[in-house]
Amino acid sequence: MTATDAAPDPVAAAEKRWQDLLDRIHDLEARVAATTSTVNAALDTHLARLDALRHQLTRPTWPLPAPDPGSSRATPPDNRSA
């Protein structure tokens, strides 16, 4: 308030409004930085997974090689009941 009347000081009110705006901008910047960090970490994780999948697809382990004729894998077991 000014010394001559009961009205609030317009300069102090304007400064308070500006300070409130600056504080809100600072809080918003902090939230954006935190969100950006989280999003970047998630993107890094997903990109690493995609890279691993791409690596698997470019070097397939299929089709499986045929077993040797003399190995036990060449003849399937007889599971029929007599």
- Roughly how much helix do the residues carry, as a percent range? 55-70%
Mean pLDDT: 84
Fraction in beta strands? under 5%
What low-confidence regions span 5 or more consecutive residues with pLDDT below 50?
A: none
- How large, in whole angstroms, is the Cα Rg? 35 Å
Structural class: mainly alpha
Helical element count? 1
Major sheet summary line: none
End-to-end gap? 106 Å
Q: Give me the strand/helix succession.
A: H
Number of strands: 0
Overall morphology: rod-shaped
What features would you describe in this structure?
This protein has one helix and no strands. It has 82 residues and is an all-alpha fold. It has a domain at 23-57. The longest helix is centred in the middle third of the chain and has 49 residues, at 10-58. The termini are far apart. The relative contact order is 0.05.
